[in-house]
Amino acid sequence: MVERIYHVGLTVSDLDKSIAFYRDVLGLTFQGEIMMVGEETDKMFRKENCKARVAYLNGSKALEAPPVELIQFVDSEIHKEQSISEVCFYTDDIDSVYKTLIENHVECLSEPQYFDFRANGFGESRAFYFRDPDGIILEMMQPL
Q1: CA atoms within 13 A of residue 50's CA, in its CB half-sphere
Q2: Can you name the residues that pair with 90 across neighbouring β-strands?
Q3: Roughly how many angstroms between the first and final C-alpha of the chain, as a whole number?
Q4: Alpha carbons 29 and 60: distance in angstroms, whole number
Q5: Could you count the other beta carbons within 10 Å of the beta carbon of residue 34?
Q6: Dihedral over Cα of 49, 10, 98, 109: its sign
Q7: What's the CA gap between 100 and 81, in Å, rounded?
């Protein structure tokens, strides 16, 4: 069902400051940034008019070394009540995984959502968040 960890996501209060820390202090390589906005983003985060700046940094080119995903919610009101720190898992069949989770009464925050970030150099994917038994948010992603 899960093939590998795809990325580890952290909510930050100041994306530019966090990028500088992870890049300049820890030595990770900045891979790029995207802006998440729209109906799919609203569903994914369960917030209306949600805007999130998202940056990716990595310390290794090895496939098994997942990047760090930094998320800054642009609306300060959303940031105060929304915090995502998650492990994102890779799958090659997101619909099957979603169905299995639902059948096992796992809380899914939305159904799989389609994202197209080809213009930012990140490609297309489908993803959704879900909770583990302790309520920790996890993410499932299928690159397309």
Answers
A1: 22
A2: 4, 141
A3: 17
A4: 8
A5: 17
A6: negative
A7: 29
Q: Is the pTM of this model over 0.90?
A: no
DSSP string, 53-100: EEEEEES--STTSPPEEEEEESSHHHHHH---EEEEEE-S-HHHHHHH
Helix, strand or coil, per DSSP, at residue 56:
strand
* pLDDT tens for each residue of 19-55: 998 888 778 899 999 999 999 999 988 888 989 999 9
Which residue in 110, 44, 95, 97 sits closest to 71, CA to CA? 44
Q: How far apart are CA 71 and CA 15, in angstroms?
A: 7
- How far is the C-alpha of 76 from the C-alpha of 70, rounded, in Å? 16
Please give the single-letter amino acid code of residue 128: F
pLDDT tens column, 45-61: 888 898 999 999 997 76
Measured distance CA(137)–CA(61) in Å, rounded: 26
- Check: CB of residue 70 under 8 Å from CB of residue 52: no
**Nearest CA to 107 among 141, 86, 62, 138?**
138
